[in-house]
Amino acid sequence: MERPRSRLPLALAFLQALVIAYFPPATPVSAGPLAADVIQVFLSPNGGAAEAVVRELGNAKKEILVQAYPFTSAPIAKALVDAHKRGVKITVLLDASQREDRDCPADFSHNAGIPTYIDDRHAIADKGIMIIDRTTILTRSPDFTKGALERDAEILLVIKANADLVKEYLACFKDHLEHSERYVGRD
Q1: pLDDT tens column, 81-123
Q2: Which of 17, 121, 171, 187 minimizes the number of CB atoms within 10 Å of its CB?
Q3: What is the C-alpha separation between 60 and 81, in angstroms, rounded?
Q4: Fold of 36-182
């Protein structure tokens, strides 16, 4: 009777392919010679995630859409204000809990003159995306907070030149913006 062959090597090869596909190295990776998609992966802490966010915000020319639970990272907040001062159109969409925080991110962006909205339709609106110039997506496991970017083990993806994915993220942003209320500051 012939012994069944182990499927372990095949399973390990498949697992390795998945890991490479979903967690490529921190250098830009192309899906092929004709593909325009570029995905960069940054880790935190000490893996360049915070610096990547600040760099991408600094490269913005026309528009930045931010959908976040919180953002309390001072370098990211400064990069948003700097972009706003350069004339980049910015819209910030935050979770409802953020208007109640002592160091309220909604107050910060609103007071900087950046249109700020609150998504209070959900128990928690824990998105963490930025869409820059409708060509670049930043999506993350960490919140855009000091702690997440400086202490926690997190991952940030920077996805460029993927028009179909940008369209999906824009549709999500628009959907949440439509049911959100404009933040007008604390009374």
Answers
A1: 999 999 999 999 988 776 666 666 677 888 899 999 988 876 5
A2: 187
A3: 12
A4: Endonuclease; Chain A (3.30.870)
